[in-house]
Amino acid sequence: MHALLNNPAAASAPIALSCGEPSGIGPEIAVKAWDNLRNTCPFVWIGDPKHLPTDTPVVHIEDLSKVSDVAKTAFPVLPLAFDGSVSLGKADPNNARGVIKSIETAVDLVKSGHASALCTAPIHKKALIDGAGFTFPGHTEFLAHLAGVDRVVMMLASPALRVVPTTIHIALADVPKALTADLLRETLEITDHALRTQFAIDTPRIAIAGLNPHAGEGGAMGQEELDWINDLIQELQQKGHDVSGPHPADTLFHATARTRYDVAVCMYHDQALIPIKTLDFDRGVNVTLGLPFIRTSPDHGTAFDIAGTGQANPSSLIEALKLAQQMTQANSAAP
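Predicted structure:
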C-alpha cells in the first residue's frame, strides 16, 4: 500500500475540494453540496470567493481542524486570489493559473494529512492550455504527475454499479491494438488492490467483459478472447483473484447479473460508461485508483450553458464527497 494511504490520523480531517473551472457550475454545486452535507461530511473549498454565489455565507479557513465546526453554519473556504474575471458561462484563461494552484494546494493538503481525501470539481482543459500552457491530457494525468505515479485507473461508481474501462479516450478502431495482456493485467491488479484497501471489500469479485460481441462466440466474432483474454483470466484465478469472464457485455449489466460482482472491468470507454450513465446518471462518481491518496470527482463537465442559472444538479458532487468520506473510513480501517 502507498505510504500516504492507511493513515488513521487523516481520517478525521476534512475533504479538500478544488474549485475547478470557476465559470462553470462548480462553485454553485459546491455550495449546494455544502448545504446538503454540512453536518455529516465536512469539506473545505479551495478557490477565489468572488466566484461563489453572492449570497453564500463564507468563512475563510486557515486551520483545517476548524472546518467541521465552521461547516455547520458557513461555507469553509481556503481562499486563493485568481487573476481573471467572474464570467459565468465563458471561461477566462486568466483564471487558469488559479485553477491549477487550487488542485496543487488540495493535493498538498492531502499528502500532508491535513485533508483526508481529494475531491475535484470539473476543469476546462482549453482554458488551462490557453491561460497556463497546461500540457497534460487531463485532470487525472496531472494528478498522477503530482503524486509521482506512472499508472492510474479510472473507476466510475454509483450505488447501482461500479465499472472500470481498461482503455479510455481513444478511437474505437484503436482499442484492439491498445488493449494488451499487460495493460489488462495491471488494470485488474490496481482495481483489486483498491477495492480491498479503499472500499473494505476483503475478496473483490471482478467481472471482465469480453472485447467482442458475445465475448467472441468461440472465435466467430473475434479472436482476442481465444488468443489471450481467457488465458489471462485463468492466470489471475490461479494467483487467487476472484475474477470471472470474459462475459458478453450485453448480458453483464442487468439487475441479476450485477449481484454477482463488485466491479465490472470493461475493455473500452463506452462499454463501461453507457451502462452506469443509463442506470444512475446523476449519481455517478469518477474515482482515480492507483494514486497514493483518495480522489473522487463528479462525473460531469463544466456545464457552461446552465452556469449561474440555479439549474445545476449537485447530486454527483454530493455522491463524490460522500464516497470520498466512505473510502477514507474504509482505508483507515484497512490492515
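Summary: The radius of gyration is 20 Å.
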